[in-house]
Amino acid sequence: MAVDSAFSSPLGPPACQKDAKALQFIEEMTRNADLIQERVLAEILSRNAEVEYLKRYQLDGATDRETFKSKLPVIKYEDLQPEIQRIANGDRSNILSAHPISEFLTSSGTSAGERKLMPTIKEELDRRQLLYSLLMPVMNLYVPGLDKGKGLYFLFVKSETKTPGGLLARPVLTSYYKSDHFKTRPYDPYNVYTSPNEAILCADSFQSMYTQMLCGLLERQQVLRLGAVFASGLLRAIRFLQLHWQSLAYDIETGTLNQKITDPSIRDCMVQNLEPNQELANFIRNECSKQNWEGIITRIWPNTKYLDVIVTGAMAQYIPTLDYYSGGLPLACTMYASSECYFGLNLNPMSKPSEVSYTIMPNMAYFEFLPHEPGSITGLTRDPPSRLVDLVDVQVGKEYELVITTYAGLYRYRVGDILRVTGFHNSAPQFHFVRRKNVLLSIDSDKTDEAELQCAVENASQLLREFNTSVVEYTSYADTSTIPGHYVIYWELLVKDSSNPPTDEVLDQCCLAMENSLNSVYRQGRVADNSIGALEIRVVRNGTFEELMDYAISRGASINQYKVPRCVNFTPIVELLDSRVVSAHFSPSLPRWSPERRR
Ligand code: AMP
């Protein structure tokens, strides 16, 4: 389709008229970033002028940045917990927002071991939808012809709970997939999925994955891009194929649907898609039965142009495995978002993962940036709010923690993400995602911090008491060499009575005790999503941690300042630890987890 030259964009020639509008919108937003930010803040503050939280700080109707910054504190989730709890318990007064809180979005970030509850309002769905609508127009600038085929995306809903006051609590993507915005989205030739809505919306993860994989195999020649939200999700799909290709090939051969797929709406919709296809079944058996799965993605889906998965931040650990299975296909990280707020998008989605930068869209929320000096005491104290800088005032090369004020009632809220400014698109800065603060271990969306790990080790080591044994040192490692990955905890033990050392059985139980002590996102990954494997304790021989210190000192660490790292990922250190392992133990069963009602 010829595109009116009036719509041409500095980002590149748009693929169609609709794209031209989206690109123009990006230009407008990024050119006027400061003005938009000022308006967003004024809008949030004026509509919420009468809410309890803002009145408490005597904003007295002011909507300007100076007053806002001088009166409102910069807060963390825990500071807001009383208000969140009241809303969860059913208090419908205007506590945080003048618009009714429509539901809670459950973050993968936890507080006291439970998912954080993020309030949201109905219109936030429109804002999220708007950001989604910008992704393909940008992608079309770099990858032509995406309207000639489909996307195989593995998308899932997760369990929902209700708060005591009756509000739904569920992950943001579950909320989005279940919304009309997603379910009744208009046909867009550039955004056609192989997965039927019925499969995406099935809460049983096996049935959902099976059907999505089956549909992807049936349309393997049409698939132009493969994706999941995070890299770990796509690898889980590959693992699923490794485990279930025989059944999938059988279904394709016979034109029937596996009896384990009992969801009536999936069965109804699949009846129309299935007919016997011997040739395809043979092909799949032939490819999947090979020992070597290198490049399996491009063998099965030969027209794939790129993988659409987030591989920035904690997900970077999966890049080598994705490269292995895809034969090095480009990895596209398209957006940066959270339960609290969707932030922005990558205007150069085909860039190398290490060079990915996200442009924060100034219409999504009001953004502030807390300068982050690595090693400083920032974060230990309540930072003087005046130190925060506005979106357009951040400096290239510097690191900041993201602080947001949203339409849904978060005011100067610290997200906990550390970002580094890499440049600007017009007046909107672009950020490299550096890391999430305080995350030691992560396999999927789980985030385990040092305090949680410490507590888990302490709880587990109680079991060693009767053997007069204690854990003298420990460290950890996220082992992603297998799918799903799992936590490895290295323990050095002090066995005081060598005639009665802890048995293997007890050490296995220690693994389980650790898992039971970890936060609910971890346990959900283990139990409901099967996205995390059994925790492993590797007992190392005595003196290993001293060797670790010697090694660090030989590389320049100061003896006075040396602290045992509670997580290791530097290969020589992992190798050193592994070479000293005397026994390895795994959780013998799944930890406790249930989608309980929120307190
Ligand atoms: P959740 O609250 O569970 O929705 O998780 C949101 C968090 O996931 C963000 O605050 C980031 O720490 C992380 N995240 C989201 N998008 C990206 C991305 N594109 N790259 C790296 N980390 C991301």
From TrEMBL:
Residues 358-436 form the GH3 middle domain. It comes from the Eukaryota. Keywords: Ligase. InterPro entries: GH3, GH3_C, GH3_M. Residues 452-570 form the GH3 C-terminal domain. Pfam families: GH3, GH3_C, GH3_M. PANTHER family: GH3 DOMAIN-CONTAINING PROTEIN, INDOLE-3-ACETIC ACID-AMIDO SYNTHETASE GH3.1-RELATED. Belongs to the IAA-amido conjugating enzyme family. This is Indole-3-acetic acid-amido synthetase GH3.1. It comes from Xanthoceras sorbifolium.
